[in-house]
Amino acid sequence: MMNIIRADIYRILHGKVIYLTFLALIAFAAGMASLGLIGGDPASEAEAFVFTGAISAAELMTHSVIWLVLFILPFMFTVAGAIFMDKTAKNEISWGLSRNKIYIARLLIIAGLCVLLVLVYLGFGIGLVTIVNGFGVAPPGFWLDLAIMVATQSFMLFAASCFGVFLFFVLKSGYAITEVFILFFFFPGIVVTTLMNIDIDLSWILEYDLMVNAARLVDLRQLETSSIITAFAMGAAFILLPSIAGITIFNKAEIK
Amino acid sequence: MTVLKTTNLTKIYGGKAAVDNISLSIEKGDIFGLIGQNGAGKTTFMRLATSLTSRDSGQIELFGESSKAGITASRARIGAMIETPALFQNLTAKQNLEYYRLQRGVPERGRVEEVLQIVKLTDTGKLKFKNFSLGMKQRLGLAVAMLSHPDFLIFDEPTNGLDPTGIVEMRDLIKRLNNEGITILISSHILTELAQVATKYAIIHHGRLLKTLTQAELHDECKRAIAITVDDAAKAAAVMETTLGIREYKQVSSNQIRVYEYLHDPAELSFALAQEGIRVASLQEVGDSLEEYYTNIIGARRKQS
What is the ipTM of this complex? Predict the structure, then answer.
């Protein structure tokens, strides 16, 4: 499995997608940071502490987690799509690599990229806000909270990725995969909000929406235990169910 | 040593057998040619051998291993190019090979350059795979197959898309690899092409194995000869040797003999035998070109079915 991962890292680093995606992510982080976070009076918002990055971390994440899902699409296509859509999986299988390892190795790479994505996004956003608004003293527990935020958000983005990778087995077209993936994460919120405008309350649906739960996990301290359990259960379900289904289908699939 | 052995191997698609009870064995050192029309089942057979598709019934033995784990482990000794080469579109030849070198854990860094030289793709530079000609893609597919020093190579129609020079080079390459001790399974729908490299043949039609034969047997089958039916083939052979000095002949059965000389004068042959009291029941010139031979076998099967 390590050889698969090593080879894939070589391949990813020799393509343009990873660099373009991170450039776009940095631009997005700059945009989000400039929306209200840069140039304001952080001290008035943060009272006792003046480390402006501390304010920006939660702000940056809460409002953007749904958009970060879009940035994992290129990762899915580069890591998993290339294998299953460019049909290179047949080289690996005919050479004797187990299908389970082929699938799981790609999930592990995507998991790593999700962590990197959150780190780069927060790192750049916090850094920019800090540079523009000024340094200060980090409040107690800030670094631990930040680490927990990176972990939870990476976990939820990875859950979304697992669903995306699974789509490669049921939808053969790249366009269809993109459309279904985006609709799946954006559509429930739009529909529920629209229905609420005509007095149909289906907001309970959003309790089980992966991205709503991801946004909630940004600040664990504000959440009740039941909400934390629900959020993590949703994440775990999105990782396990599509992956088990994907691996099962892949093991039986005709590799053309 | 048997490299690949299949017993009653069957694969069914939509109720129709694409591979139908095929039993054959490929020995170490063979260049085993699978010959059949398009859709005959050659590629499906190769896909079964490489686990790209699962069998419906029958057995596969690879390097003596027949358990699932044993077969999977033995596949590391295989290099395969099935159908069109599938490689990363946005990588160059060198990058694609380096990718597979890392994935297969091939320790020698120089191996990439080595196989590029073998398939003559050292000058492709930064050209990406997606911009390769079909012939170049085929050659890079072969390079990937050869990368990890396999003991057994499986090539599905490797000359597809190659120009005449490329075909000759491919033939030479296959022979060279075989001389280095690599067993090769190769498919084609053109018997004359296979005949120039293969040492054994299997003719497949509608998923069924019609015939397996060695190069010598194929040569015999296709060699022009006079087939004579006599009352005593052994006596006829002795007469031909002593009176006509014939050395190239084969006694097929107790009353049949095949003579590869005197094709220009069968009457003299008949006369010599008759003079020694041997009754000649029939005498006819036989032997096909490779195409005729192949067409006849396929045609015979069509009539039977």
Answer: 0.81
